[in-house]
Amino acid sequence: MAKPTTRAEFKNYCLRRLGFPVIEINVDDDQVDDRIDDALAFFHDYHYDGTEKLFMKHRITAEDIERRWIYCPDAVISVTRVLPFDDSNSSINMFDLRYQLRLHDLYDFTSVSYVSYEITMQHIQTLSILFSGTPQFRFNRLQNKLFLDIDWSRDREVGEYVIVECYRAMQPDTITLTGTLTGTNTSNTITGTNTIFDQEILENDFILISGQEKQIRHINSPTELVLVSPLSSNVTNGTATKYGVSDVWNDRFLKKYATAKIKYQWGSNLSKFAGIQMPGGVTLDGPRIMQEAEAEINKIEEEMYTMGSLPSEIFVG
């Protein structure tokens, strides 16, 4: 059978791995879904393929300044850095020191040394850290809030952007966005009703709006999106869908781990009837199944910790 690409196919794969349909697996469908969700949560936290590193930009609103924090979507599991607000990382005019160094000292790439230039650049970076610094922040993934410990009345203005380096969980399920959308073929702006756009998607994501696949350029607010290109036809109170990363369902760690979790649930269910003899002389042995599953889970988790996890920096912040 082809590799699983949906939750239903993944569920069937795990059950077949346990012996279904030759053996009856005494686990309810809801229990199977719960164990798959548990496996996905562990996969997102500890496997390098469970997340992706990206730079998320957020346009400051008056509400952000008033409450002194900005939204982070549910998909963001860790924030590692907020980029400095100054222009220390770019050379934007001819009076910039780096521009002058390159113009006067590095015009000939063969007759000058890079040593003095590198020392000067390190000195400039040190001065930037001393006088500008990097924005201090606090983030907890359960709150969906990024707190910036800055002077909001001075450092940020409405319409400016905050660039955040973060890690995002790879979502394998296709989800339908909250609320409805309305847009025309003459504008890139999409407005929503009862929506929470910035909680469920990120900029540059592709979404399907009433059958039209479009890429998001900006998320202006929880009720307004800006697309890269206008819709091909008008949409009134339409729905939007975001496709999941279906290849996640075929990850070998996830398949083994989810199967072991379901097996443990199976053993837990049967343990309630331990020692009962069935017709034909068969005796239920739930505790043994639980022990086998627990050993498998511990082995897979250890392998995940040592071979598949990212550096611990994603848990800092």
Structure description:
This protein has 317 residues and is of the alpha+beta class. 35% of the residues lie in helices and 23% in strands. It has nine helices and 14 strands. It has helices at residues 7-17, 29-46, 62-67, 97-104, 115-131, 152-155, 197-200, 252-271, 286-308; strands spanning 51-59, 69-71, 76-82, 137-140, 145-148, 161-169, 175-176, 180-183, 189-193, 206-209, 212-221, 224-227, 235-238, 240-242. A hairpin with a 4-residue loop joins β4 and β5. It starts with 6 loop residues before the first helix and ends in a 9-residue tail after the last helix. The relative contact order is 0.17. The mean pLDDT is 85.
What is this structure, in a nutshell?
Helices cover 35% and strands 23% of the residues. It has 317 residues and is an alpha+beta fold. It contains nine helices and 14 strands.
Architecture blueprint of SSEs:
Elements: H1 7-17, H2 29-46, E1 51-59, H3 62-67, E2 69-71, E3 76-82, H4 97-104, H5 115-131, E4 137-140, E5 145-148, H6 152-155, E6 161-169, E7 175-176, E8 180-183, E9 189-193, H7 197-200, E10 206-209, E11 212-221, E12 224-227, E13 235-238, E14 240-242, H8 252-271, H9 286-308
Antiparallel strand pairs: 1-6, 2-5, 3-6, 4-5, 7-14, 8-9, 8-13, 9-12, 10-11, 10-14, 11-12
Helix pairs in contact: 1-8, 2-8, 8-9
The chain-level mean pLDDT equals 85
Query: Using only CA atoms, what is the Rg?
Result: 26 Å
Largest sheet: 8 strands, antiparallel
Distance between the termini: 43 Å
Helix content: 25-40%
Silhouette: globular
Count of helical segments?
A: 9
Percentage of residues in DSSP E strands? 15-25%
The low-pLDDT segments are none
The helix/strand order is: HHEHEEHHEEHEEEEHEEEEEHH
- Quick one: how many beta strands? 14
Helix/strand/pairing category: alpha+beta
| Largest beta sheet: strand ordering | 7-14-10-11-12-9-8-13
